[in-house]
Amino acid sequence: EKHISIQRHLADLEKLADLKEGEFTMAVSQNTDLHVTDEKKPCPLCPEEKFKACYSHKLHRHLQNLHWKVSVEFEGYRMCICHLPCRPVKPNLVGDQTFSKMGAHYHCIICSATITRRTDMIGHINRHVNKGETESRFITVPAPKSSHEVLKESATDVQVLPNYSTPQKTDSYFNPKMKLNRQLIFCALAVLAEERKPIECLDAFGATGIMGLQWAKHLRSSVKVTINDCNENSVTMIQENCLLNKMKVKLNTKEEDNDEAMGDGEENTDTIEVTKMDANVIMHLRSFDFIHLDPFGTSVNYLDSAFRNVRNLGIVSLTSTDISSLYAKAQHVALRHYGCNIVRTEYYKELAARIVIAAVTRAAARCNKGIEVLLAVALEHFVLVVVRVLRGPSPADDSAKKIRYLIHCQWCEERIFQKEGNMVEENPYQQLPCDCHGSMPGKTAVVLGPLWSGALFNTGFLRRMLFEALQYGLDEAQPLLKTLVYEAECTTLKHFSTHSPYDENKQEECGVYIKTPNTSAESYLVHGKRKSDEVIRNAAKRQKSENSAEHPAFYYNIHRHSIKGMNMPKLNKFLKYLSKAGYRVSRTHFDPMGVRTNAPLAQFKTILMKYSTPTYTGGQAEGPVHLAEDVQAGEQVQAAADGKAEDAEFLEDDKSGVAAATFTKDYPTHCVAD
């Protein structure tokens, strides 16, 4: 039997005290003296020494306020607080006297455990729910089993467990915050599907199977999807989700051929193969054109297997969620997993992306393969890297040469990659553009790395990803992809020319996709009909021609380098000032206030200082503000005399808002990615 403190309604609790339902309300409505019509009754959940017997009106308030209101609810039942001596309590010894403390507690409806605090009781019940223990042993009528919650994302339905967002407590982990990550990977796969059909793609860590289901549902005959997971419960969940989305399943649970067809009719293009084996095993046994790795934590343990059998000019994408080590919060873990020495810098997100790419490059080189980085994204929850595989020792050597060490000045945040070569340099500080080592005592710089020193983006591939995002209506990925295109070209928004990537012959991606603008027919060049060395030569020529236009490495945070006592210009205006000075400049998705430019840090600070306005305290605002206005008016006249009409317009805007800027510091509100 269940404990008396577990009841459905307050009336059930009052019946235990022989308190008739409505007795207190009836006495009040008839203006009857409760002491005459009632007799004293004890509380059923309190001992006599804690709460003495009282009349019904007082007992009603006691049960309602001290027991019912602080109860814990679970599936229609209330676990009220109990003061009976059910829980053994150690006595308190004070001198020669012994005080027996009456411990208030709750009785668990599931396991009959006694919990002291209400918050602990709620957590105790939640742990039962996470383990799937939702049926009470005390309930005579079994409660209806909680059905799996169905979530919908990108026209794909998936069943998830009640604890789907906690990876440590579930077999089928599903994170709604990774929707942007899934959309980016889908766009990359859609671009590859336009190059050659059909392609075999693998989701090595399926969990609920949401990613593979989206691939098969939208790309259909262009892809042959394989969803893998080593957990039996996850495999069962993937099969149910396939049937929920009206997809046929081909089950393969062992390394040998053991196929079991599920669904009606014969196997067709909408069939998804579900495998139950270790990710390293399936990537060693089979070849794929597209592989995505998304383990819980780091993915370095699966890189060797991923590059072992991936096909030439295929794509490997990996999502790393071990951001504590990549973002320099656990530097010893980064050294252990990636063999990389890092510190916390203003550009730590881009540093994390280059760490992952360096690990990918080394794994590919061990398999005599090179890489071309197509996309590198580092946001709050993950680091996503998408690379194209170039088979052969020559591309492997070229990629390995791009792994270098970075010299970072800890005083001014200036940074530069070490020069190529094996000779030991006498004074490495000479490579830094700054002179902090000469003006500051001690050692001022650290060596970070090894890191990837090449480009992080491929402009042509990003344009085609943006086209696919527009075609499939992926709203969350479109703003980020636009920002990535601007960042890859290192240009501002107004200087960017938007046009369809299929309006002209696309020969950027190794000459694999061609479409004539005046015809609707599309011509696909199949890689199998070409010699692999010719394709690699074309890729090498294209990479060599793009080196001159490669985006600058790293970025500067405008707030990090702001001058004390000065109001910075608006970020978009500052980008124009840098561009007019002759430098390449763009915003970056790594940091909303970051500026990617090839300008040295000294010139960056000079331009920032030039266009900053003084900030004064409230008592001094009246006098110096007029002085600042006079100075700006003089600069406006000089700018107009020099023919700099655009600068004069900016100064006019600053003049109108200088009074407000003296009291509050205006920050740009436009956020491009995060």
From TrEMBL:
Q: What cellular component terms from Gene Ontology apply here?
A: nucleolus
Supply the name of the protein: tRNA (guanine(27)-N(2))-dimethyltransferase
The family assignment reads:
Belongs to the class I-like SAM-binding methyltransferase superfamily. Trm1 family.
Subcellular localization, as worded in the UniProt entry: Nucleus, Nucleolus
Report the residue ranges that make up the C2H2-type domain in this protein. Answer: 108-128
The Gene Ontology terms for molecular function here are:
tRNA (guanine) methyltransferase activity; tRNA binding; zinc ion binding
Which terms does the UniProt entry file under GO BP?
Answer: tRNA N2-guanine methylation
- Which reactions are catalysed by this chain? guanosine(27) in tRNA(Tyr) + 2 S-adenosyl-L-methionine = N(2)-dimethylguanosine(27) in tRNA(Tyr) + 2 S-adenosyl-L-homocysteine + 2 H(+)
Keyword annotations? Isopeptide bond, Metal-binding, Methyltransferase, Nucleus, Phosphoprotein, RNA-binding, S-adenosyl-L-methionine, Transferase, tRNA processing, tRNA-binding, Ubl conjugation, Zinc, Zinc-finger
The record's InterPro entries line, in alphabetical order, gives: SAM-dependent_MTases_sf (IPR029063), Trm1 (IPR002905), tRNA_met_Trm1_C (IPR042296), Znf_C2H2_type (IPR013087)
